[in-house]
Design goal:
By secondary structure, this protein is of the alpha/beta class. 21% of the residues lie in helices and 32% in strands. The structure holds cytidine-5'-triphosphate (CTP).
């Protein structure tokens, strides 16, 4: 067993390095879209699922690149991004040579068209923000050859129906679907319960477990 010291914690790399020689890029966290220098639009993603995937892929011997919306002090490559546009740039710049990409990040679908240069003053009444669509990172990379591309899908209703439509719309190889209407799993919790859907719409249910264990099953 190869062992390495990571900060103060001893990390033992798995004996069974099933991903040795593989390059894997994982995104994690919720992007933040600026309204002005101190305010932004974001979502409730904690980034725990993406981080669990990155940690487990590393333990399984993979060459990991984590593109996240938070700094991760880890023994693998970490690129910190804030907005969807920054995340898109980081993913595309690091795409070459990857065997697999897992988009676990909750990417904001919209950004504020004209982010204010100075803090917006209260003017009373209604404040209107104009939102424009962000690029769909997952969809745009799905045609890249020789890679397994996996997306995540957060749904609050009609989980499997929406997930099946989404994998066809996006064109990825796998989609991991989870039900965000449940308070005990998913966003901002330590546990998850997911369905893995493949291109042929085969579905595999992974029962409620820690995000660490779910990550291993996905990998
Ligand atoms: N995703 C992405 N770029 C976006 C939006 C989403 O790459 N601009 C990725 C996410 O990282 C995730 C997958 O697409 O892997 C599905 O995200 P989700 O929010 O469930 O789907 P949307 O495409 O945003 O569709 P909708 O919000 O309408 O359900």
């Amino acid at each position: 067993i190869a062992s390495c010291l990571v900060g103060s914690e001893m990390c033992i790399r798995d004996r069974n390095k099933k991903l040795k020689g593989k390059k894997i890029l994982i995104t994690a966290g919720g992007t933040r879209e600026k309204i002005d220098p101190v305010r932004y639009i974001t979502n409730a993603s904690s980034g725990k699922m993406g981080l669990a995937l990155a940690d487990n892929a590393y333990r399984m011997g993979a060459d990991v690149t984590l593109v996240s919306t938070f700094k991760a002090d880890k023994p693998y490559k970490n690129i910190v991004t804030e907005t969807a546009l920054e995340m898109e740039k980081a993913v595309k710049e690091n795409l070459s040579g990857q065997d697999c990409v897992i988009m676990a990040a909750a990417v904001s679908d919209y950004r504020v068209e004209n982010c204010a240069e100075n803090k917006i003053k209260k003017q009373g009444g209604v404040l209107e923000l104009k939102l424009v669509e962000n690029p769909d990172i997952l969809k745009s990379i799905c045609k890249t050859p020789n890679k397994i591309i996996c997306g995540f899908c957060a749904e609050s209703e009609n989980l499997l129906e929406n997930a099946k439509a989404k994998i066809q719309k996006k064109g990825c190889d796998f989609l991991i679907a989870n039900d965000i209407s449940r308070k005990d799993i998913g966003f901002n919790t330590d546990e998850n319960e997911v369905y893995i859907i493949d291109k042929s719409l085969n579905i595999k249910h992974i029962e409620k477990d820690t995000k660490e264990n779910i990550a291993q099953r996905i990998l």
